[in-house]
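Section 4.2 – Deliverable D4.2 (structural model, holo form)

The reporting period included a commitment to supply a predicted holo structure for the target in complex with heme C. Inputs used:
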Amino acid sequence: MKKKLYLIIGALLIGFLGLKLYQHFSGPKEISDLEVIAYHYNGKGYVGSSTCMECHRGIYETHLNTAHYNTSIFATLENIKGSFKEGENLVSLLDAEIRMVSKKGEPVQHAQIKYGNRRTFDWTMDITIGSGLKGQSYLSNQPDGLFQLQASYFVPADTWINSPNYTNRLNPLRPVNDQCLKCHVTFAKNPDDAINSNQYDISKIVLGVDCEKCHGPAEKHVRFQKNWNGVSKDSSLVKLSSLTRQQSLDLCASCHSGLRNNQTQNPFKFLPGDTLVNFSKNYNSLRPSTNLDVHGNQYGLLTSSKCFAESTQMDCITCHDPHKNQRNDHLYFNNKCVGCHNTNKKHCTIPASKMKENGSNCIQCHMPVIPSKNMQVQLSKLENSTPVGVRTHNIAIYPESAAQE
Ligand code: HEC
Ligand code: HEC
Ligand code: HEC
Ligand code: HEC
Ligand code: HEC
Ligand code: HEC
Ligand code: HEC
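Output (structure tokens):
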């Protein structure tokens, strides 16, 4: 009886080892259903976040709700936030009117000159830029390339506006090149290495700030994991948790350090782990930090604060979980402050009663919302520009008046 049992166990063991050996030497099988959207300059393939769902479901699902994922998308009548209803679909300029209309079921900006020949233009709205938290801008794929359209949508006022930095007349369409796209899409390639061209095959643009923007093109990782033989190790992705502080900061700073100049390499060549100054220099590097604008320069502001300068570890991930939408989760952020400002660091010196009155909301007083100098919108042709408020990352002591939410 016992002997029989040993025989069965032995046979099972041999069978198992045989299977493992077979898998080990049989090499990877081809996966035919894996669609590569685009190839990076280094030859590696982008496969998009839907392929990650199968094995990273938790991260995949929270990622779908982030401003990153939603920052660019193919435009449809359904996902454009502004209204197409007659009377609500208008931007009126001094010399022309732009109406948002549906033509053959597709969203279109229809412009008409007010005087003289009263010429009209129809431009398709093909790609939406902006998660729609503050606003959306629209790109049009024309026969001669990709262009930004003049009418944008401004969420806080729920209205169509003349795009920021446009004059109050019908402007020529603005060509969209890598310098504009680099912060709002994961990957795009145009045939011009000098980054001045607006020629793109838009079916090969990897939209959104997707997994592979931060983790690098992942085709190899997916193929490897789908064929995993239980033995060999997958080292195809850069391990982000073991980057140096500067490498980790550079990944976020590639889009969150404001205007950059001296662009010496195509911005889409930058990959996680790379050093950003090898690609471009910071436009503001020689300016005093008090002149930094709050829009889009979290890196410059954070690095000029004492919290950053006097701690060795702090980077963006200290406070942000890159896989989640944490907007307005003030409890989470305040816990991060308290986590550091505990026993051995300085404590807040305001009276306890005042702290309680403000709900112990550290960021309300030390990271107030400040009007942007660079991001201003004109809500109607009669009004002056209204600045958009952005929370500053220069963590510091501000006068009480700054802390109004
Ligand atoms: C077939 C399953 C599978 C698919 C599909 C898959 N992964 Fe993974 N991934 C894994 C497994 C298993 C690990 C853990 C590997 C290890 O620890 O050695 C992993 C690890 C990772 C890591 C951590 C790497 C590290 O060393 O820190 C990242 C990042 C990652 N995957 C990203 C992605 C992305 C992005 C996609 C989609 C483009 C994706 N994965 C698709 C199975 C998969
Ligand atoms: C490819 C450029 C790019 C990279 C890389 C990038 N971001 Fe962003 N990030 C953006 C853009 C664009 C937005 C604004 C999206 C929108 O609202 O349309 C944004 C928004 C955010 C927001 C605001 C989220 C919200 O709810 O409104 C946070 C926080 C943030 N990024 C943190 C990070 C961190 C941390 C990293 C590095 C791990 C990083 N980003 C890397 C482009 C990028
Ligand atoms: C804005 C940048 C960013 C985006 C977008 C992003 N990640 Fe990450 N991811 C990171 C960073 C940074 C880390 C390392 C965090 C750390 O150091 O603890 C990380 C860690 C990971 C890990 C390993 C550690 C863990 O938390 O399990 C996996 C797996 C992973 N990401 C998968 C994904 C997948 C899948 C997507 C898309 C659905 C995605 N990531 C999108 C920045 C990003
Ligand atoms: C250097 C990176 C960078 C470049 C280049 C850039 N943006 Fe942005 N953009 C951001 C960041 C970061 C945010 C949001 C956070 C902030 O305001 O600091 C943002 C916000 C936006 C928003 C508002 C999104 C929302 O809902 O809150 C729109 C619309 C937008 N950008 C359009 C554009 C267009 C169109 C271009 C090209 C002409 C462009 N951006 C170029 C980084 C960039
Ligand atoms: C990684 C640790 C760390 C985190 C997280 C952190 N700080 Fe700090 N902070 C410091 C250090 C170190 C200093 C320098 C003074 C000291 O040693 O306490 C400092 C200084 C300050 C100062 C004094 C600034 C000045 O100009 O005098 C304020 C205010 C402050 N922190 C508020 C905050 C708030 C609010 C948060 C959360 C949003 C926060 N800190 C998160 C480490 C941190
Ligand atoms: C000490 C904590 C802390 C660190 C470190 C930090 N952030 Fe933030 N960040 C916050 C808080 C708090 C908010 C406001 C969240 C809210 O209001 O919902 C925020 C908001 C943002 C926003 C949205 C701004 C807006 O008003 O639209 C962006 C973008 C952002 N962070 C990027 C970054 C980047 C990039 C880094 C690294 C250079 C970074 N953050 C480091 C605490 C931090
Ligand atoms: C109502 C606004 C308000 C709130 C809420 C608030 N602070 Fe302060 N904090 C201040 C002011 C004002 C000062 C400067 C007080 C002074 O000059 O004596 C200060 C000073 C500080 C300092 C510097 C202390 C020193 O010795 O230099 C730190 C660190 C700090 N706060 C951290 C925090 C943290 C962490 C929280 C959240 C738990 C917080 N603060 C909440 C207004 C606030």
